[in-house]
Amino acid sequence: MVEYSDARLNDLFRALADPTRRAMLQDLAAGPRTVGELAAPHAISLAGASKHIQVLEQAGLLDRQVQGRVHTCRLEAAPLHEGVEWLRHYERFWTTRLDALDALLRAADAPAKPARARKRTPSAKTRTKR
Amino acid sequence: MVEYSDARLNDLFRALADPTRRAMLQDLAAGPRTVGELAAPHAISLAGASKHIQVLEQAGLLDRQVQGRVHTCRLEAAPLHEGVEWLRHYERFWTTRLDALDALLRAADAPAKPARARKRTPSAKTRTKR
């Protein structure tokens, strides 16, 4: 298993654990936004929005450029990639669940087709493939 | 974009934002564990371990079965799948970054090999593969 820094993953998942911050990421995915634009859809003050933005910055998810009084924020997606890579190590567990469901459905189907039900190779193949 | 319940994603990412809980998930990926077994690798009390386990349960990541005084915990991976699906919507941003890097490297390489630099098909192929 690739080892990502614990601190980076802590910051990433903490940043994603809030619906306002996830909505801000979704907005940033459409293009750069000022702090005011990021705050606008939410019932929060500019100071409240700034706190969320700082959490996103801390997680490396947001790059802020300051020109005079305008702070322009851009999405930085690399930490999200690390999150996906971490989660993917558990992929076999949900695909195993799907295999089990598949096997159940085949078994339920078996009485109608006894000849095919005896032949267990296809389900074994399915299992090793995933 | 598939809409997952905000509450579920909050619970999932909150559960993943702690290194002890991520380590517990990694242990559970190897097989069922008792609460004592989950606590053992960490410098925490059983009560401390129980709190982490409750957070994992709340996120739907852990199923606990009680037989007498033994609580056996099992991994439930489905919420992790939802997390991956949510994160994948941002995949185009990190692949775009890699493509840009690829283009830069090719451009830097171009003056030395003008004949190959003109042939743009390989870079287009690379882009569609990702």
Give a quick set of tags describing it:
Arc Repressor Mutant, subunit A, homodimer, 130 residues, 65% helix
Write up what this structure looks like.
The structure is a homodimer of 130-residue chains. Chain A has helices at 6-16, 19-29, 35-39, 46-58, 78-88, 91-109, 114-118, 121-129, and strands spanning 33-34, 62-67, 70-75. Chain A has 130 residues and is mainly alpha-helical. Chain A has a domain at 6-79: Arc Repressor Mutant, subunit A (Orthogonal Bundle). The first copy, chain A, has a three-stranded antiparallel β-sheet with strand order 1-3-2. In chain A, β2 and β3 form a beta hairpin. In chain A, α1 runs antiparallel to α4 (46-58). Mean pLDDT of chain A is 83; it is low at 115-130. Chains A, B: Residues 1-95 form the HTH arsR-type domain. Chains A, B: Residues 110-130 are annotated as: Disordered. Chains A, B: One of its GO terms (molecular function) is DNA-binding transcription factor activity. Chains A, B: This is Helix-turn-helix transcriptional regulator.
Q: Number of helix segments of chain A?
A: 8
Proportion of strand residues of chain A: 5-15%
Q: What would the average pLDDT of chain A be, to the nearest integer?
A: 83
Computed CA radius of gyration of chain A, to the nearest angstrom: 23 Å
Q: What is the first-to-last residue Cα distance of chain A? A: 17 Å
